[in-house]
Amino acid sequence: MTGSAAPLLQLDRVSKRYPRGPLALSEVSLHVAAGETVGLVGESGSGKSTLARLALGLLAPDGGSVRFDGRDPHGLRGRAGRVTRGRLQFVPQHPRGSLNPAQPAGAAVEFSLQVHGVPRDERPRRVAELFRRVGLDPVLARRRPHQLSGGQVQRVAVARALATGPDLVVCDEPTSALDPASQRHVLDLLAELREQEGLAYLFISHDLGVVRRIADRVVVLRDGSVVEEGAPDRLHQDAQHPYTRALFAAASAEELPHAAPVP
Ligand code: ADP
Ligand code: MG
């Protein structure tokens, strides 16, 4: 089979312009192999979320192509659509906004299981399992989103994504709304799940310091174009583009050792 050699996600010279809006992406090519974590970094407005929506099939490109496991994820319907949506999942920046405030947090995870075809009587057990898997006490499944912290809500979003057994999870600024300690915990969780489940991530952030901690490969986006890509350490030591160097200069350095004393 040639399938195993092809990347899981492949964007080929993708362009996107919003109606009466800017050219959000211009001929962007990017791929994610099975089990790989690709970091996508760029300033606010560089086109990261647009790329996420295209990768998830929520938007169609104006030019170029998007393939998930060889198929265009946009407009897939019926069984093929369900199967693809299960394998290709999403963790948003502001998950509180994607949870129903009137329903307990567990309902979102249960709904994901339902769409994935898990029988009703199995769902409560699976919800509890998924809550434990993301480091949450299953009793929290009965709380409403406003009764949970930002970090806990983000873990619920991760549990909801895991419920369908995905191969690739697109994480759009999954830690940007969190304080540094919760940010570190969610990053550690994502890294751990990747090891356990063999997940691939498209991990998006404006913060190269965060991306660098988790990505195998980093793609740098500026004004809708890729300016540079490479292994995080290579980029850190030898960035070719001044924009990449500027992103490193602005990066959070939370895990770096304390600054060396000035000689
Ligand atoms: P990022 O996620 O990197 O901040 P976005 O993909 O959200 O960037 O935005 C890229 C560009 O497209 C920005 O100039 C933004 O203002 C514009 N844009 C994003 N969404 C829309 C939309 N729904 N309609 C019009 N313009 C949009
Ligand atoms: Mg964005």
How are the SSEs placed, and which strands pair?
Layout: E1 9-17, E2 23-32, E3 37-41, H1 48-55, E4 63-68, H2 78-87, E5 88-91, H3 105-115, H4 123-133, H5 150-162, E6 168-172, H6 180-197, E7 200-205, H7 208-214, E8 217-222, E9 225-230, H8 232-238, H9 242-250
Parallel strand pairs: 3-7, 3-8, 5-6, 6-7
Antiparallel strand pairs: 1-2, 1-4, 8-9
What does this structure look like?
The protein is of the alpha/beta class. The chain has a single domain (9-217, 226-250), classed as 3-Layer(aba) Sandwich (Rossmann fold). The protein has nine helices and nine strands. Strands 5-6-7-3-8-9 form a six-stranded mixed sheet, with helices on both faces. It has a three-stranded antiparallel sheet with strand order 2-1-4, covered by helices on one side. The longest helix has 18 residues, at 180-197. It is globular and about 55 Å long. Magnesium ion binds at residues 48-49, 172. Adenosine-5'-diphosphate binds at residues 18, 21-22, 24, 42, 44-50.
Distance between the termini: 59 Å
Oligomer: single chain
Structural class: alpha/beta
Task: Give the helix tally.
Answer: 9
The largest sheet is: 6 strands, mixed
Rg (CA only) = 19 Å
What amount of the residues lies in strands?
15-25%
Domains counted in the coordinates: how many? 1
Low-confidence stretches: 256-262
